[in-house]
Specification:
7-stranded antiparallel β-sheet, disordered C terminus, alpha+beta
């Protein structure tokens, strides 16, 4: 069973500045990708995660500042945007303003994350491009780490681990038969496919340059 563990981080000045920089890059990617999706919808087309992830990879070859942050946290930002647009609608998803949005960086690849206990009070985790970061280990992880999210709340930074504790989720009991036949029809949601997608060459370069400031 997956469960969450949240701890207060003790970042160095350099690490805190690095997290802020990563957050600004993720915010720029989110805002640029959101604007692209809105432009597609205005033209009657649809943009999906796979298309935007490919364009992001192309943009990184021309813009060094995109290479500063770990690739998978930028890809995770696009995945989060994709889900938000599908759940709420492209034009209802909000921009991430610098003053209103607290940085949140999700490292989705648990196999790249190392966690060690230093003593009774402190532990440390090794995160891509951040290196070893210390945190107040108030409780044991209790399982294998699947992902980690570094976020800022006010002036403090925290790390949240998604942990597989090995527990088995209890099976749901079947509902009693009511005697009335019900036809269950699954709802299908088109994800990807690219049938109605159109490519506007050059957009990633102009867009990512626009939001890089």
């Amino acid at each position: 069973m997956l469960t969450g563990r949240r701890y207060r981080l003790k970042l160095t000045t350099a690490q805190a500045a690095q997290c802020e920089e990563f957050g600004n890059i993720c915010r720029a990617v989110w805002n640029t990708a959101l604007e692209q999706r809105r432009e597609y919808r205005r033209r009657g087309a649809w943009m999906n995660y796979n298309e935007q992830a490919g364009q992001l990879a192309d943009a990184k070859t021309e813009h060094d500042w995109l290479q500063t942050a770990p690739s998978h946290i930028l890809q995770q930002a696009l995945k989060d945007l994709d889900r938000a647009c599908r759940d709420h609608g492209t034009f209802r998803v909000k921009w991430r303003g610098k003053q209103r949005w607290n940085p949140s960086l999700r490292f989705p690849m648990g196999k790249l994350i190392e966690v060690e206990r230093l003593n009774k009070r402190w532990g440390r985790a090794k995160l891509p491009k951040l290196g070893w970061v210390q945190f107040r280990m108030t409780r044991q992880l209790g399982g294998a780490v699947r992902s980690a999210t570094v976020s800022r709340d006010g002036r403090d930074w925290f790390v949240s681990f998604l942990v597989d504790d090995g527990a088995i989720t209890p099976e749901r009991h079947a509902a009693p038969h009511s005697g009335v036949g019900v036809l269950m029809v699954p709802t299908l949601c088109a994800r990807g496919g690219g049938g109605g997608d159109r490519c506007f060459p050059g957009w990633p370069v102009r867009g990512f340059r626009c939001y890089s400031a």
